[in-house]
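Blackboard transcription, Thursday session:
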Amino acid sequence: MQNIEKEYYGNKVLKGVSIDLKAGEILAIIGENGAGKSTLMNVLFGMPEIHGTGGYKGKIIYKGKEVVIKSPHHAMELGIGMVHQEFMLLPNFTITENIKLNREITKKNLISTVGGKRLELLDLKSMGKQAREALDKVGLGVGEWTVVEGMPVGYMQFVEIAREIDKKEIQVIVFDEPTAVLTESESQRLLAVMKKIAAEGVGIIFISHKLDEVIEVADKIMVMRDGEQITTIAGKSASAMQLAELMVGRGIDSSQIAEKRNFDGAENILELKNFRVDMPGEKVKGIDLKVKKGEIIGFAGLAGYGKLGIANGIMGLHPASGEMIFEGRPMKLNDTMSILKNHIAFVSEDRKGVGLVLDNSIENNITVPAMQVQKKYLKKVLFFSQMDRKSISEQAERMIKELKIKCTGTKQKVGALSGGNQQKVCIAAALALEPDLLLVSEPTRGIDIGAKQIVLDYLKRLNREKGMTVVITSSELKELRSICDRIVVVTQGKVAGELKPDAPDGEFGMLMSGVTKKEEGERNE
Amino acid sequence: MKNIKEFLLNNIVTEIFIVLCTAAIILSDQTTSFLLEQIVVRFFRNGVLVLSLIIPVLAGLGLNFGIVLGAMSAQTAAIIITYWNFEGIGAIFLMILLSTPISVFLGILIGKLFNKTKGQEMITGMILGFFANGVYQFIFMVLVGTVIPVNNPDITISGGVGLINTMQLNETAVGALDKFITISLDKAFLYGFIIYAFIGIVRAVYTNKWGTEAARQKWGKIKWFYLAGAVVYGGAVFYTRINERLNLAMAFVDVPVFTMILVVFVALVIQFLVSTKLGQDFRSVGQNMKVAVSAGINVDKTRIIAIVISTVLAAWGQIIYIQNIGNFATYTAHEQVATFAIAALLVGGASIKKATIGQAFLGIILFHILFTVAPMAGANLFGDTQIGEYFRVFVSYGVIALALVLHTVKTVRQKMQQRQNEDTM
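(Written on the board underneath:)
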């Protein structure tokens, strides 16, 4: 692939990336979420979303010829296969049926000679035999007629690989974070299988966050950041620390880092003990955490590793378990109303889904939560509660001024506002609850730089002037470091570590990719 | 113990029905011969209609309420042959011939619509049925005699515009399929046992000699059910032979052999389709469309094929139904087709995701036992047949609702179990 560029609606996500892969070589691609790894792979597989948004620039040269890959099926025919991150297996089929999916071996019969190929009967026996061979290659001893449902996830991963190598023409296999769901020993076995496949002359592209694994198997490592190709280095010579720095490093100015404050003596406002949240895709698997009164604490981590689950779990939006103590009192979990009544407010990462009613006016969006929870902005008329239009408008006017919300008036529909201004309305709605603890998730996702700064500054001001405790969850490390007093890195649903905002880039990268200092130390010895 | 509980829970609809049927049979106080005759007649009358539902279930389209349109094409064909006054069994075959292209065309349209409303096929199919009813009635109530020239005072309303309310087939065509070959039930019962035993032996020999490992394992498990079935069946055959009254009752019941052959043929066709590449595609698409797409299966086309097969079979099923009864309500005969067929299939233990031919057959028998005896049980119990009538309509909707609820409960429970499993790992 040469000079691949890709734009989504004027937003450049790939800025001239070139890779080359020889037969039998393992190329690792590493980078943070949003670095452009998956977009690059989507280009390689000709996914519909690429062609549907104006195609790409650059050339793909495959076996010496330039090709334009039109569809995933086309890629498959060319011999490019993929082992997916989420399993592409059919649960009610047996392993054999899954391996041979749409490549079934069939026998001719009387009816099929008239009715065509699709009416041929399945040759289960030879399908089973070939599946067995593929399974033996990846070293999976399970019976080839076992139903996939109920199998351990590790096995499923190997079945996926068996499916790819069963394809006779396979030339290139892409492994998309294959070890994310595996145990230690399974991962080791997978890496061994990868090497074995490569030794048979198949080119492998290995996408991973786990730096130690990358170093172990890759011949070449390419680091991507913000759609750019930072560097490509030989696998054996790399160290985890070096890679981590390359991955994260944006060289933050020390002036931008939040000033140090000391909270040693402060009381705990919130305490979590063995806190678990069952949020799809963002599972939290038992964390212990203390939040001090008056501080700004940040949650960092890669997408899908559970950092978003924490705030959602606290609010009771996804089923949580464990213990939660707020201002010294234990809280009832999974009861959003009582949490809100205790002056904990939440600005959701899902602005349009959870945060706002897009068809409603700004003033309603700002005041309805407070109306529901605290019976504010209401007046009694006989037996009915009526909305107090006057105080609602006043509050909305005040917030619009304070947060510099760009709008035509308090009655404008929220859906008509820009992303940044919608985010400001979300914050205003949370503030109308007069919270002691404010949870903010991804406050700057999808909003422009100017609005970003206003939002961040405002959060900081709330903290400094009103003493509000703020918990920010964000994928943008830079912004966390600019306002937080400390940053908790969440990996695999657990707390990987806690860092001060002025810690070096490398340490953040190491924690995010799940390499603990101890392991690294052992490797160096 | 846990397995037994699971088994009972999974088949709760069928179990409720067995209890209901037993109670209703006792309460209705009918002669055995009447009961047997009714069951046999209704079994073959409805067989193909219920079978037509199986393939869409496998292909993940749920219960196909769109078979109403298949029934409409059958009725259109029936109206045409009545207009030209065709006679005998030839008329029935002509009906099949005429209804097939209409139902293929309608099937393609339904399939295209379902592809646009993925995930909501059932409700779409239901509303589509209501809509198509309007079009159908417009054609035969308004267009006939005005736009479509129909000069047959026997089938139009006196003014010459619109068809009469009840279509009567030519006398020689009534029951032509059923009467083509018949044997008495006691003989059929005996031959049935011989065929059952024969199939059992063939299967045992075949799987052990040529079957795959999985097939052998599966056979090893169901072997005992099969054997138990043989013992029960054999015992029943023996009992009917020595019990003179029952034997006599059975001798008076005619089995429509030719219709039976048709039903069995359709069942075999479905079984054949399921074991082809196409059947494998149906099941792949039914489980997960995303995975099927990424494996290169043409999902939309596969779904349309499934619906076309279903619609055509429904048309044939409705033809068998009409020839058995001999007449049909021109404007309303199709309305309940989907509801009753679906209820019967669900009673047999099928769900939105899973259906087999065996479940279809069991379901028809149970559902129609209740249908037959409920009015009489109502009459004996409350002195009013109407209550029984209400009861059976109420039951068929109740069954569909219950099956849908149970399906949701089951999927939620499975998901929770899966999560627990993941957590413990």
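Lecturer's comment: Chain B has a mean pLDDT of 84.
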